[in-house]
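Students often ask why inverse folding is considered easier than folding. One informal answer: many sequences map to the same fold, so there is more than one right answer. In these notes we will look at a single instance of the problem. The structure comes first.
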C-alpha cells in the first residue's frame, strides 16, 4: 500500500492504463497490479472519496490545474 498526492497518483495512473478523463477526488483510490520488475497496470479506480460522499467539497479550489469555473 502506498499513499501519495492525488495529482501524482493521477499522473502515474494515466500513464499505466488508468482513465485520463475521470477525476480522482481527495481520498479517492487507484489500485495497481504488477511489480517494479514486470510493470504496473491500473486494475481499479475509485474517484469518489473513500470515506463517503459527505467528504466531497465541490466548491473547494482545485490546485491540480482544473479550469476555474468563474
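Output (designed amino acids):
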Amino acid at each position: 500500500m502506498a499513499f501519495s498526492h492525488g495529482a501524482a497518483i493521477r499522473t502515474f495512473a494515466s500513464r499505466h492504463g488508468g482513465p485520463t478523463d475521470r477525476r480522482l477526488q481527495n481520498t479517492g483510490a487507484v489500485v495497481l497490479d504488477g511489480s517494479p520488475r514486470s510493470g504496473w497496470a491500473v486494475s481499479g479506480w475509485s474517484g469518489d472519496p473513500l470515506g463517503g460522499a459527505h467528504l466531497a467539497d465541490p466548491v473547494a479550489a482545485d490546485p491540480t490545474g482544473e479550469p476555474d469555473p468563474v
